[in-house]
Amino acid sequence: MLPTIAREDDAVVMIDQRKLPAQEIYVRCKTAAEVARAIKTMVIRGAPAIGVAAAMGIALGMRKSKATGTQKFAADFHNVCELMAGTRPTAVNLFWAIDRMKRVFAAAAQAGESVAQIKDRLDRESQLIHDEDVASCRAMGAFGAAVVPADARILTHCNAGALATAGYGTALGVIRGAVEMGKTVTVFADETRPFLQGARLTAWELVRDGIQTTVITDNMAGALMLQGKVNFVVVGADRIAANGDTANKIGTYSVAVLAREHQIPFYVAAPLSTIDLKTPDGRHIPIEERSAREVTHVGGSQIAPDGALVWNPAFDVTPHHLIAGIITERGIFRAPYIDSLARAFEPEAARA
Fold first, then answer.
1. Is the pTM of this model over 0.90?
2. Is 78 found in the same domain as 40?
């Protein structure tokens, strides 16, 4: 399995996704500030992955804290959490992971644990978040594989693979699960302008796995569907509102509209940590806007004239009525999402 992120004694190590596919380089972040910078500059990206990175960054930062008393240690912890929270606004997994680390810290402090004991507990929790993410991806891969056609011609947008998670992937986990089930799978990967996650990352992952993959530009998806060459669409998510509206990489909404026009099922694959029941609908999801240079340049080459205005939202929102189902580690949830997503967090016995 592709190693996206790992914790070593004195560092958080992650593959530099900006360099792929040309170079496979690993970055060693030795401080919490370096982890935060890696998240912000997209050394690591993908909602589940940045949640794991934030948790590991917090644990690393507190491991290196020089505080000996619990009061100063708590102040350091608050500052590190604020640092991580300021990196990227849309992916709710980031805030989910921070909140989970806060709960662990509060429980340890309330129990009267020492600074050393709290450091150990934070280390364990960050690794648990990592391991649970891999397990949840494999589970949603198995659930999703069941609805993939036997002879699947799958379109996906952006990268929701091992690189976007702690391993295996969400949307690509569904594709991998279908292959492992014995289904015949070919994939069309939208290039995903302007950061090219589909062309650079999704294709790189799937080619490594030996899965037949064709890269297309984003504006080719409709023509491909019209020719009957796509029969299933699956994408990841950065935040899913309580009503099922889903924020994902910019361009996802266009794919969903095209899929509806051509009567192709459009699925979202994401862990429960991506579902934000506190956000009622897509209008309330904060959308990150990124540097104009991502649009005006490809690599080091300028492709737009000086003086041209640029709008560069990193995400758009797909309305829930365009989504056939939301694939999670606890099964596939369908409309009405306001009911089914609420039930997703109930104990198994209550949901049954």
1. yes
2. yes
